[in-house]
Design brief:
73% of the residues lie in helices and 0% in strands. With 92 residues, it is mostly helical. 15% of the residues are buried.
Length: 92
């Protein structure tokens, strides 16, 4: 693996970790507004659950920026992962 590949991979992992923390922050903020029986569990993420988190967050916090930053870090992680593949020669 090249030095550039290691650099881009570390950026991709960092973006993924930050995105995960922001997801948990969103869940926490939404759960503060929901009754106990309807709260969203923190474990096991899947597309339907992420749609619910996003919808509930937008409903309770229409001006909230956490969703924007979570998506920005997810996209950034994907871009850096693609750059890792390019730097390491996987896409030749």
């Amino acid at each position: 693996m090249t030095l550039a590949g290691v650099f881009f991979l570390s950026l991709a992992v960092s973006c993924g970790v930050i995105s995960g923390f922001l997801t948990y922050q969103e869940i926490g903020e939404v759960n503060r507004k929901l009754p106990n029986g309807d709260q969203i569990p923190y474990l096991l993420m899947y597309p339907g659950k992420m749609r619910r988190i996003k919808a509930e967050y937008k409903r309770y916090y229409p001006e909230g920026r956490v969703e924007f930053w979570r998506m920005a870090f997810q996209v950034g992680g994907g871009v850096f992962l693609a750059l890792t593949a390019i730097a390491c020669g996987f896409l030749k």
